[in-house]
From TrEMBL:
Protein name per the record: Cupin domain-containing protein
Organism whose genome encodes this protein: Acetobacter lambici
Transmembrane segments: none
Phylogenetic placement of the source organism: Bacteria, Pseudomonadati, Pseudomonadota, Alphaproteobacteria, Acetobacterales
Alphabetized InterPro entries for the sequence: RmlC-like_jellyroll, RmlC_Cupin_sf, UGlyAH_Cupin_dom
Signal peptide, first to last residue: none
C-alpha cells in the first residue's frame, strides 16, 4: 500500500509498476487519490493505437522510453497536456513508462497538445507566503504553459533561489520534475526525502511537508487545485 502522505518517487514506482506493457488506454496502474476529481496513473504503453476525444485534460510525462502523440514525440524528462476534446494517435517504444494526470474539463477549449518547454522565458512571480518561511524570501520566476478554464489545472516552469519553508499541508496535487538543483522534504512522520535534477515526483493533497533547497531550483510543475465548493 502506497503511503500518500510522503513524496512519491515516480521513476522508482514505474520501475516496479505491476502492469504489463500494452495499450495506452488499458496498461495502467492507478495511484490512490483523495476523491474522483483527479486521476493519477502510471502507464506502460507499447506499440501504437488511437485515442478518441474525451472531456478530460490529460498531462502525460515520459519517465522512460519514448512516447509520441500524433507527430509530437517526447523522450525522458518531457511532458505535454492533451487538451479535452483532442483525439490522437499514439506510439511508444518498448520499455516506455509514462505518468498521466487526468482532470475533467467542464468548459471545453480549443483541442490540441500543449508542450511544457523547459527553456521558456520566465518572468518574476510571487514567492511563498512569508509566514511559511524561515530565513530570507526567495526570488522566484515562472513561465506558465497553460491554465484550465476553471483555473484548477495548470502547469509550467518555476524557479527559486535557496529557501526553507516550514511544514504546510498540501491543498493540491502537484507533479514536479527537477530541471536544476535539489530539494529536501521532511513529512509529518519525520521522514526526510531528497530529490535532485532528473527526478520526477508527486505530492498529493493531504500530505504535509517542509521544503529546503540550498541552491537554485528549477522545475516543471503541474498542479490540480480544486476550487472550494
Amino acid at each position: 500500500m502506497l503511503d500518500m502522505k510522503r513524496a512519491l518517487d515516480l521513476k522508482a514506482l514505474a520501475a516496479t509498476c505491476p502492469v504489463a506493457p500494452g495499450d495506452y488506454q488499458t496498461a495502467r496502474y492507478a495511484l490512490p487519490v483523495a476523491d474522483g476529481a483527479v486521476g493519477l496513473e502510471l502507464v506502460a504503453p507499447q506499440g501504437s493505437g488511437h485515442v478518441d476525444a474525451t472531456d478530460e485534460d490529460v498531462f502525460v510525462f515520459v519517465l522512460d522510453g519514448q512516447f509520441s502523440i500524433n507527430a509530437h514525440s517526447m523522450v525522458v524528462g518531457q511532458g505535454s497536456k492533451v487538451t479535452a476534446g483532442t483525439a490522437f494517435d499514439w506510439s511508444a517504444t518498448p520499455g516506455t513508462r509514462v505518468f498521466a494526470m487526468r482532470v475533467r474539463e467542464p468548459h471545453m477549449s480549443e483541442p490540441g497538445v500543449v508542450r511544457i518547454d523547459p527553456t521558456a522565458a520566465m518572468s518574476p512571480s510571487s514567492p511563498p507566503p512569508v509566514e511559511y518561511l524561515t530565513g530570507p524570501t526567495p526570488a522566484c520566476q515562472s513561465a506558465p504553459a497553460w491554465r484550465s478554464c476553471d483555473g484548477q489545472f495548470y502547469g509550467g516552469i518555476w524557479s527559486a533561489t535557496p529557501y526553507y519553508r516550514k511544514k504546510v499541508p498540501y491543498v493540491h496535487d502537484e507533479f514536479m520534475y527537477l530541471l536544476e538543483g535539489s530539494v529536501s522534504f521532511v513529512n509529518e512522520a519525520g521522514e526526510e526525502q531528497t530529490f535532485k535534477a532528473g527526478d520526477a515526483f508527486l505530492i498529493c493533497r493531504g500530505a504535509s511537508c517542509s521544503w529546503e533547497s540550498r541552491d537554485v531550483v528549477k522545475k516543471v510543475y503541474v498542479i490540480f487545485r480544486p476550487t472550494a465548493s
